[in-house]
Amino acid sequence: MSQPLLEASDLNMRFGGLVAVDNVALRVHSDEIISIIGPNGAGKTTVFNCLTGFYKPTAGTIRFKGEDIAGLPGHKISRKGIVRTFQHVRLFKDMTVLENLLVAQHRHMNTSLLAGLFNTPGFRRSEAMALDKAMQWLERVNLLDMANRNAGNLAYGQQRRLEIARCMVTRPDLLMLDEPAAGLNPKETEELDNLICELRDHHKVSVLLIEHDMQLVMGISDRIYVINQGRPLASGTPESVQNHPDVIKAYLGET
Amino acid sequence: MPESAYYFIQQLLNGLTVGSTYALIAIGYSLVYGIIGMINFAHGEIYMIGSYVAFIVMAGLAMIGIDSVTLMLLGAFLVSIIITSTYGWSIERIAYRPLRGGNRLIPLISAIGMSIFLQNYVRLAQGSKDIAMPSLITGGWTIGPADGFSATLSYMQVLIFVVTFISMTALTLFISRSRMGRACRACAEDQGMTNLLGINTNGIIALTFVLGAALAAVAGVLLGMYYGVINPYIGFMAGLKAFTAAVLGGIGSIPGAVLGGLILGITEAFTAGYFSTEYKDVVAFSLLVLILLFKPTGLLGKPEVEKV
Could you give the ipTM of this predicted complex? Predict the structure, then answer.
């Protein structure tokens, strides 16, 4: 198979004496939806934090498109094409919905102060393109009529959708979602399911997912990694993981 | 109108004049606090340096025979803004950025050190004596009876109002409309997330220091000419007053800084005019204590939500 988009191997993260991530390895290929599951406190979010530059891993390599990105600052990793969400909503709540999508395109725009001051054609064009893209995504996530509301005033499910839209306007290759279905009702979860599949099928984005909603995970994942107490437990297709004896033991306890 | 009315108008004008320059400096405190939650105690010194640069430019231009008021003013503002912006940027780069991410107290101490350093560096370079700033703009409009107290609005005060108004409008437009302004607001709300969206937050932080320094330079040029005297120590009191103004209005809020500056200036002017000049600082700082007792976040400030 071709070179993976993201490849982490022997990933270790220690906080003092606590080993939060112990020799975790994972691969994400292009146009794949990969889930990381595991009991609470298994180290899933810590893996995310290592991959996105929040933490510098104690040991191990992270390669993205063949480049080593372990320990790079967050904005550099993001510029290479990885973008993520968090377990809790982190929108810019005092900015409008539209501004949230525009600020995310900041680095793609011609930001020279002088260009802005003289409102050059190039400046106006890039502004118009950003606006276009923002509107497209607002339409896709059904928030078009909310464009000028403050993001903080949206309902929870809408905020979740806006976050995904905000990630997408940065034109990522890999989208990392940390418990995107948490707090959503069944109907919203189903919409999310469709949205994530559409991202893979129509927008050429790979998705790496942490999720507790097993129905969602089993339904959309191409492959699943199971982590328990920081250590890799199993990996493979949804079916093989579901029937893996160690996974059943970790989730249901020793019987 | 009775004479007392003219007296009242005069105090109000004086208060608004000083208040608007406090507001200019206060915005610098608020901008920086809004983004990285740190009090830049060296900010008063930036203002003082702004005054000195303006003086040097004016003296230099006079020396080569240029005595057009417009040219001198333009030169003073321009050079002063450029040089203080460089100071603002360098201070952030040298004294604060390496310390970011640690305990909040550490950059604060570094800021105090920076303030002492700059004060003494100017004292050594320029001497500690008072320097008389040329008053380029004289005269004004007088209203009121010829034989008694009349109120005067000097042209210098008009200049202060106009320049302050222009600077604040420019800043407000920049923050609310421009792309960089948008990035600034995003950074103020959630620095980590802004960084993850691919925006270089260090650059944004440096920009706020530059903006704050530029406004302080404007205040430095204006107040220097208004009072007519500068020395290396003026930054301390001006910084303290502007900091008070920023806290009064709600630190982190730009309209708050403006409101706080004006309230502080007017309070001082009225205390000096109706009570006693010696007590103006006492009243000004008592007002701060009172407002903080009843509204700890300042007039327009928002309660800080602890970020997870």
Answer: 0.83
